[in-house]
Amino acid sequence: MIFRINKIVLSCLCLILVTSFSCTTKDNSKLNKSNILDHKVDSLLALMTLEEKVGQMNLYNGFWEVTGPMPQEGDSKTKYDHLRKGWVGGMLNVKGVDNVRKMQQIAVEETRLGIPLIIGYDVIHGYKTLSPIPLAESASWDLEAIEKSARIAAVEASAAGINWTFAPMVDISRDPRWGRVMEGAGEDPYLGSKIAAARIKGFQGEDLSRPNTIAATAKHFAAYGFTEAGREYNTVDISTSKLYNMVLPPFKTAAENDVKTFMNSFNDLNGEPVSGSKYLQRDILKGEWNFKGFVVSDWASINEIIYWGRAKNKKEAAEIASKAGSDMDMEGYVYIKELVNLVKEGIVDERIINEAVGRILRVKFELGLFDDPYKYCNKENERKLIGQASHHEAALDMAKKSVVLLKNDNNLLPLKKEGQNIALIGHLANDKNSPLGSWRIASDDNTAISILEGMNAYKGNKLTYKKGVNLYEGITAFAQEVKINTTDRTGITEAINTAKDADVVVMVLGEHGFQSGEARSRTQLDLPGLQQELLEAVYKVNKNIVLVLQNGRPLALEWAAEHIPAILVSWQLGTQTGNAIAQVLYGDYNPSGKLPMTFPRNVGQIPIYYNYKNTGRATNREGNVFWSHYIDQENTPLFPFGHGLSYTNFDYSDLTIESQSYSINGTINISVSVSNVGDYDGKEVVQLYIRDLVGSIVRPVKELKGFELVSLKKGETKRIDFKLTKAELGFYNNNGEFIIESGDFEIFVGGSSDTKLKENFTLK
Ligand code: NOJ
Q: How far is the CA of 483 from the centre of ligand 1 (A)?
């Protein structure tokens, strides 16, 4: 009843304001959707008390799941009390129609104005049906498939009451020690921007007010991926040109693609904790980019301004963050405690509060929550849509597309389907949990199809499974820490005996899904525990090994790259892992994935990435020691960005560029022939890189500026066209200005970043 009355009051008020506005407008037709929205927001704002406004800026965690440090305050009683007072704008980690309805009912039916809650969750790579982890999906370079994966995640999440996801994570990172590289699109800003756009489109769809689309979040703004030494939550100190050229492009793309929210990050940037960064949030995001949505803090990150030593207490933290443009405080208890007084004391201008609340309300209006706050609370949809067969099919398709074939000596893969004696070895081969990754939301533990199960579906061969060694002894319940086995070798002999007689040994080794993700930085990037020992022991008796890596990040596996004939990167592929891997191993699917991140030879090379700068001493000119190198390791990576093989082979030829000279405003047309010269139909990611040879600041040796995923039948040739314009040829200088300079450029086209096929042109 109260809800109905409130709704009536609100709609009347909106109508009055909208009508009066349209009457005073000379050209009624100019009253567009956005104006109407502004007026709805303003009319609601006019009804709100200061306390209610600050309440909208407060985001509370649900009562049963925690995705950050245990809050030091805010027990359930306080949260319920605040909810009833209208002091909560949204909740996170509440899922399921019944639970969401319960919270929404309090907000809508028990508070004075009945403003609905926004309900957020980390829907990162699926809700119940899990797709591959985002880094894996990015290895597909298949934007359509990635968009579809996000779409399905939105369909399932929205059917469970959720209307806001904390995804996509668009942090560029060059440091695989950082556990969160699993959640992003890798090291490249161009690829990262394309993938960001695809994910946002998938989550938000064409019309946010539909019940199966959800608001997306571009996170973590900004530079979190450059955390020093790859250590989680660490400091970041980078130049303006690196910020603009490497870090910001996917965020800018997200803003251009109308992402509804941004989340800031835990790091500082050049001395300013970013939740308090006016430079990032007001000047760049809301200023330069004219972003209209709202900025949510990360979990207690406003409070952490105190621990950084940038604010002396909550009051100062609230002042700094609100003035800097952080609109909503996630589980930090800072805004709700301090902002009202800060306004009353005249320290924070109420216009800052109005602006933040206006942004939040706007997104709620766009979601259609004021029309029907329970639109995501449909039991029938929840039952019908979540986990439906078509979602599993799509997850399988995405999983196959995400696999990267690093190496395939003597065409060991694909495996023959009959008459073979195959040994399958490794703890992870029989693990139904690890492939789900560390963001598994509503998916139940142990629900992935294991590789053993997937391979068992192929009946023509004799398949014998042995664990070899345990990767881990256990996983702690709350923190989900993986206790790695470093002592128990009892299964090794059995594995050796099985491998001895096998035609081919498939070894599934790597990291557990809980060894990457937030707070999972590593200093070693080898195979954890006793797996390397197992690999070498098996290799001694049988060299026909296919190594299937399960990993949440690039690993440094020099020995394996040198000795093992076939290596597949399978990441954590989600619910359909085993089916996907089996189909790839048996050649029912021809892999086409390409690395979105460089694989180093060892940890000492990190950060290592393809778009590095040349240095003044790039080569060993006189055969002496004074050049940029290591004395104990090569400079080159183990596997470069963009690398990935197929069961077939592709040939590149006839790279042509229309002219050798262009004006700065011109369009450069490039084309190349790609032929499938092998024995299978296949797909290839054709990649275009540029090098700006001389610049007013040093330019990278290569930059990805175009790619196309092409299907080629056996024997087929296609001509692929690319265009380069100002947007691709320019760059940001150290003042954050986008400039384009005349001079000589090289272009490279091929199937990896180390392609040598090259042409030149000059910009005049
Ligand atoms: C902390 C993480 O950094 C962020 O990405 C996530 O969305 C929040 N916790 C909420 O779970």
A: 24
299 lines ligand 1 (CB under 6 A): yes
Residues 484 and 413 in one domain: yes
* CB-CB neighbours of 657 under 10 Å: 18
Question: Looking at residue 210, what DSSP letter applies?
Answer: S
CATH number at residue 714: 2.60.40.10
Indicate if 600 and 699 belong to the same structural domain: no
Query: Which are the catalytic amino acids?
Result: 298
- Is pLDDT of 445 > 90? yes
Helix (H) and strand (E) counts for the chain? 23, 28
- Are 480 and 598 within one domain? yes
Closest-lying ligand 1 atom to the alpha carbon of residue 217: 7
Token couple for 459: 């009946």
| Domain closes at, from 552, 586, 605 | 605
Expressed in angstroms and rounded, the spacing between residue 67 Cα and the centre of ligand 1 is: 6
Ligand 1: does its nearest atom lie under 6 Å from the Cβ of 122? Answer: yes
Residues 433 and 572 in one domain: yes
**Atom 4 of ligand 1, nearest CA residue:** 298
Please tell me the distance from the alpha carbon of residue 118 to that of residue 147, in angstroms, as a whole number: 23
Atom number of ligand 1 nearest to Cα 167: 7
Same domain, residue pair 564 and 676: no
CA of 414 to the centre of ligand 1 (A): 40
Residue 654 lies in a domain: yes
Closest residue by Cα to atom 3, ligand 1, is 298
Q: Which atom of ligand 1 is nearest to the CA of 169?
A: 5
CATH number at residue 481: 3.40.50.1700
**CB of 166 closer than 6 A to ligand 1?**
yes
Does residue 67 line the site of ligand 1, with CB under 6 A? yes
How confident is residue 1, by pLDDT bands cut at 50, 70 and 90?
very low
562 in the same domain as 678? no
Range of the domain at 420: 402-605
Decide whether any atom of ligand 1 lies within 6 Å of the 298 Cβ: yes
Q: Which two tokens stand for residue 388?
A: 């439906």
Domain count, the chain: 2
265 Cα–ligand 1 center, Å: 9
675 within some domain: yes
- Domain membership flag for residue 226: no
Cα(481)–Cα(77) distance, integer angstroms: 30
- Does the reported pTM lie above 0.90? yes
Instruction: Give the β-pairing of 743-750 and 758-763.
Output: antiparallel
Tens digit of pLDDT for each residue in 626-673?
A: 999 999 999 999 999 999 999 999 999 999 999 999 999 999 999 999
| Residue 67 banded pLDDT, cuts 50, 70, 90 | confident
The answer to whether the beta carbons of residues 198 and 150 sit under 8 Å apart is yes
The letter for the amino acid at 178 is: W
Rounded distance from Cα 432 to ligand 1 centre (Å): 25
Q: Please classify residue 234 by burial: count the beta carbons closer than 10 Å to its beta carbon, then call 0-12 exposed, 13-18 middle and 19+ buried.
A: middle
Residue whose CA is closest, atom 1 of ligand 1?
Answer: 299
Mean pLDDT computed over 545-571: 98
At 34 the pLDDT is 84
In this structure, are 466 and 542 located in the same domain?
yes
The CB of 219 under 6 Å from ligand 1? The reply is: yes
**Is 278 within a domain?**
no
Q: Answer yes or no: do 478 and 584 share one domain.
A: yes
At residue 388, the pLDDT reads: 98
